[in-house]
Amino acid sequence: MPYVAVKGGEQAIKNAEALLQSRRRGDPAIPELTLDQIEQQLSLAVERVMCEGSLYDRELAALAIKQSWGDLVEAIFLLRAYRTTLPRFYYSQPLDTSKMQIQRRISAIFKDVPGGQRLGTTFDYIHRLLDFKLIAEGQVPTAPEAEAITEPVPRVIDTLDREGLMQAEEGQRGRGAGEQGSRGAEEEFLTPQSLQPFDLTRQPLTFPAGRDARLQNLARADEGFLLSLAYSTQRGYGRNHPFAGEIRMGEVEVVICPEELGFEIAIADITVTEVQMVNQFKGNKELPAQFTRGYGLTFGYNERKAMSMALVDRAMRAEELGETIQGPAQNVEFVLSHSDNVEAQGFVQHLKLPHYIDFQAELNLVRKIRKTGNRE
């Protein structure tokens, strides 16, 4: 910290840290928040931190939220930093989202879909009015019960696929118009040469970036940034006319295949949100008119983030589809270079640190220019 070089700076930093801890705790007469309370009652915040922190651990995400005084971007930073200290033992197999244990599943393009619509947990149909009953303590609302969906639910997009109306994705393994959907959603977007995904945590991002790298970047990108870009594409800065082909949220198995065993084993069930947006494509000299898709997959229940991710994913495909680039969401380098809130907040907030020497140099330069009148 540059402040240490200033006389008395080290003690000032210690005092500032102690003050932060005191303010974070709040009034000691009020019971302290527990991690269980944060995890259970601020679940959406926990799941955003897990998603953008790239680490699926609800307890650690709750701890990061508590430590960061409720600042989710700071919590994401804490979780991402901790993640870098962990060893990596295995790579998981592609998630098979076609076998998801559905909690919520809707489609905006067909009323009746195989497996049915399932509203699940959503803010979509409630009035945006403050509920003052929540001020009263001790109320435990009861939830309606329904029979769990245990059978795999086919993807809505497969209906269009079977008619040959959906553009085949790069890297799909022999998937024809009459075939059922592929094994795992992520597998559709692997690099076609090797079918091995780009690993953003081990390899530096370079341009041009393949779709696998782009999707990884978007999965841990800042939700607000993606939401703004997604909104811009709908307002004319990207020629997007999207439909929500399918939004599903539920539990999926994480499977690994240890070399020492030689066969696959399931190690966990995690909650994910998967979104497939459908966009019209008028076609070109090589391709007939058809539908294309934007794809989003996130940890936890992160529906708005996954939808934004899918819209921006489709927007960034403009060049490969021969579309005119006319908005920032279609500029791959712009999107990927500015979407990470850990990098962004660090670069913005470093301006608070001392820049005495830099400013003095510019101050002297401005004085010299004003004195001599020489602006070259």
Offer a concise description of the structure:
The chain is an alpha+beta fold and 376 residues long.
Description:
With about 375 residues, the chain is an alpha+beta fold. α3 packs across α4 and α3 crosses α5. It contains 12 helices and 4 strands. Strands 1-2-3-4 form a 4-stranded antiparallel β-sheet. The longest helix is centred in the first third of the chain and has 17 residues.
Structural class: alpha+beta
Largest β sheet strand count, sense and barrel closure = 4 strands, antiparallel
Strand numbers in spatial order across the main sheet: 1-2-3-4
Q: Terminal Cα separation, in Å?
A: 36 Å
Tally of helical runs = 12
What value does the Rg take, in angstroms? 24 Å
Compile the SSE list and pairings.
Layout: H1 9-25, H2 35-41, H3 43-53, H4 58-67, H5 72-83, E1 101-106, H6 157-162, H7 211-219, H8 223-234, E2 242-256, E3 265-281, E4 290-299, H9 303-315, H10 332-338, H11 341-349, H12 356-372
Record keyword descriptors for this entry:
376 residues; globular; disordered N terminus; 12 helices; alpha+beta; single chain
